[in-house]
Amino acid sequence: MSSPSTPATTVAGVGEQSPGGWIAQLYSEPVSTGLVSRDQRLAEVRADVPTAQVLLSDDFASLRQGYWVIYDPGPFSDGSAALAFCAAHGRVTKDQCIGRFLSHDASDFPYQCYPPAANPSGDCKHS
Asked: What is the rounded distance in angstroms from the CA atom of residue 30 to the CA atom of residue 37?
C-alpha cells in the first residue's frame, strides 16, 4: 500500500527530480485528494505530454507545500523554454503549464513564468 510519500507502482519519476533547474509544471494536485486522484490526473496529462512525471512539493522549498506536482523535467534553460515546450504540446494557459524553478531554497519561490510563450510574464530567468 502507498502512503503520500511513497508512489503507487504505476507512477514513474516520483521524487527523482534534482533541484536547481527549471521544470514545466503541468498541473498540481493536492496531496489530500489521494493517490488515485493523482494517478488519474497524471494519466490525463500524459495524453498531451507522455514524458510527464510527478513529484511531492514538500521535497522542494521553492514550491507550495502539500501538492503532487505533475511536470516535465526538460531540461529547460529558463522558464520561457519550459513555456515553449508546453506550447508545442498544446498546453498554452497558466492552468495547463507554468515554468517553475525547482530548488531547496524558499527564496526561489517567485521564479514562476506564465504564458503565453511568445510574451511570458513573471520571473522567467533565475539570477
From this structure: 9
